[in-house]
Amino acid sequence: MKFIHTADWHLGKLFYGEYLTEEQEWLLKNQFLPLIDEEKPDVILLAGDVYDRSVPPAEAVELFDEMISEITGKRKIPFIVISGNHDSAERLSFASRILRGTGLFLCGDLYHTLAPVILKDDDGEVAFAPRPDAEPGKVREALSTDVHTHEEAERALSDFLLRQMGHAARKIAIAHEFVAGGSASDSERPLSIGGTDLISADIFAPYNYTALGHLHGPQQAGGKENVRYSGSLLKYSFSEAAQKKGVIVGEIDGAGQVGTKFTSLAPRHEVRAIKGFFDDLIKGESEDFLMAELLDEGPVIDAMARLRQKYPRMMTIQSHRRMNSGSGERSFDLMKKVDPLD
């Protein structure tokens, strides 16, 4: 069975005051959908953070609706979606029970989604364990169990789902968590305060593969070959400028062995940092989202407005200009007459 693992779409993302919905739409329609048509997966897994906030803008909801129509409607591919810490679990779960019959599995609210998704291929059943983001208190209430930490909650959710899977030989988990040892970025909202959100990769030992969301850089988790983050859809901060963005294409065989490959997706406009003296930078031009690091020691008047004439998506400027401190003594004479020009 072939699958595509993606995560952290953050539809409706605000980037330095500008919505990225058009950039996301371009990437999904011109890169992601063609990849689906090329790879022809049996299922697509979206591991949380569909939207960037719990009440997303209408354009973001419309875009996700269109992607659902393309995947499950036109292509008839099962689509398993879990909620992340940016999503509203209850809103994402709307009509989830009736939509399961169409191949769309929206797993947000624990009360409506605490069940594995069973799909079949020529080798038999593959059981998918959707584990949406949930605070320990919600897990404690939903399962009527005594858990207090994120790790305890994840173990309880895993045990509950594994019992329902019965004797299914092949198991794939879908989770939105911060696995200890992972490399974070500036654009990720912490799951909790003080590092209590960290969990061990050993929780996922019973599964043949674990599709993770939350961390925006594609990477293995906890040194486990088959516990992976696919990374975010686009670069959502300048700390991610060096990261490659894309999805993981994987295949699980009849014996439960999983092979994966990371496939890059090229955005319409890159996110980059440029560095140099103002007089040198003003000679260039680009349509990318940029951060400029100015090396000038003296002040540059109206640098942002002038750079945006050449770089319309210049988002922020950093300056290394030296600051001179004065003695604090008055260095001007209020009684001195000056002309209006001065």
Give a description of the structure.
The structure is a single chain. The chain is an alpha/beta fold. It is built from 9 helices and 19 strands. The protein has a 6-stranded mixed β-sheet with strand order 6-5-4-1-15-16.
What is the rounded Rg?
Answer: 24 Å
Tally of helical runs: 9
**SS class:** alpha/beta
Pick out the low-confidence regions: none
Spatial strand arrangement across the major sheet: 6-5-4-1-15-16
Q: How much beta, percentage-wise?
A: 25-35%
Task: Please provide the ordered H/E string of secondary-structure elements.
Answer: EEEHEHEHHEHEEHHEEEEEEEEEHEHE
- Mean of all residue-level pLDDT scores: 90
Any chance you could write out the topology, listing elements then pairs?
Layout: E1 2-6, E2 14-15, E3 18-19, H1 21-39, E4 43-47, H2 58-74, E5 79-82, H3 89-92, H4 96-99, E6 104-107, H5 110-113, E7 117-121, E8 124-131, H6 136-143, H7 150-165, E9 170-176, E10 178-179, E11 198-199, E12 209-213, E13 219-221, E14 224-229, E15 246-252, E16 258-264, E17 271-276, H8 278-281, E18 289-294, H9 303-308, E19 314-319
Parallel strand pairs: 1-4, 4-5, 5-6, 8-9, 9-12, 10-11, 12-14, 17-18, 18-19
Antiparallel strand pairs: 1-15, 2-3, 7-8, 13-14, 15-16
Helix pairs in contact: 1-2, 6-7
